Amino acid sequence: MSSSKPLWLEWALMVLISALLFVEFFQLNGFLFDFLEHTQGVNWIFLPAGFRVLLVLVLGLPGATGIALGTLWLNLPAFDSAHQLYILSVCLASGFGPWIVKYGMQQRRHLNHELKNISSASLLQFVLLYASLNAVAHQTIFWCFDTTNTAPWIDVWPMFIGDTLGALLILYTFKLCLPWLRTLARPKA
Predict the structure, then answer these.
(1) How far, in Å, CA of 69 to CA of 75, rounded?
(2) Of 36, 116, 143, 181, which shows the fewest CB atoms inside 10 Å?
(3) pTM score, two decimals?
(4) How far apart, in whole angstroms, are the C-alpha atoms of residue 167 and residue 97?
């Protein structure tokens, strides 16, 4: 029984860190790119999409759960009895959409379970599949719950572009920072 406690704590910590990172990058995106909002919930550049990709690729299910909980946290002010199913649907799409793409790519052997030798092509494929699934899922939810005069066949494109650009910006920024991060991680002699 004692050996499961550290695993449970590790999982809970990964969920919490994922939720906090997603919420903070959501707020940063609003600060930096609020002027690029197409409609409510649809941005031409959406940095949290990059963190969805990173968190799910690296942390898997705890990352997806953290993203879903972070999305719930961001939507708590609107969480009344009339909007519960809508918000829960958005949370599930936000957190588990990228996880479904990761799972599907792993099953088709386009992505290694340990992410060893991940190629630029498979990473780009992941981003494009994730952005497609995310845009379609969110626009379907918006349309089903008739939020803010939705036009799903129009709004799906800015959301797809925003998720793709946001994911690529975060991934390439992370890639550019890797050498610097490696020097920080090296023990001083």
Answers:
(1) 10
(2) 116
(3) 0.83
(4) 14
